[in-house]
Design a protein that fits this description.
alpha+beta, two-stranded antiparallel ribbon, DNA binding, WH_DNA-bd_sf, WH-like_DNA-bd_sf, DNA-binding
Length: 109
């Protein structure tokens, strides 16, 4: 199996994305680049373990990949899954099999 997103099951990817907390995680990573569990938990106002569980689901579905940075682990999009936007109107596009899902910018709180 390769890291080409076309090799991944779009159904598994969509299933993983079908949970509101996971969409919030994807939004944060799209906006801020690779992030660790503690940073995401703080930004989302959720318990560490809840964020870790959802990151694990996204990783198993091959939406996200992990990279160890010393004693920390950063989560980012798996290769080929996310295409950043060039125009600044949206954050980018998730590539899920034959589907493209646009990720827009959320309003500032």
């Amino acid at each position: 199996m390769t890291d080409d997103p076309s090799d991944h099951s779009p159904i598994e990817m969509l299933r993983a994305l079908g949970e509101p907390t996971r969409i919030r995680i994807v939004d944060e990573i799209a906006a801020g680049g690779p992030l660790g569990v503690a940073v995401l938990a703080g930004r989302l106002g959720l318990p560490y373990m809840a964020v870790w569980h959802n990151l694990s689901s996204l990783r198993r579905a091959r939406v996200l990949a992990v990279r160890r940075c010393g004693q920390f682990i950063e989560y980012s999009f798996a290769p080929g899954v996310f295409t950043p936007s060039a125009d600044g109107g949206e954050l980018g596009t998730l590539n899920v099999g034959a589907w493209r899902i646009s990720i827009g910018r959320t309003a500032e709180k």
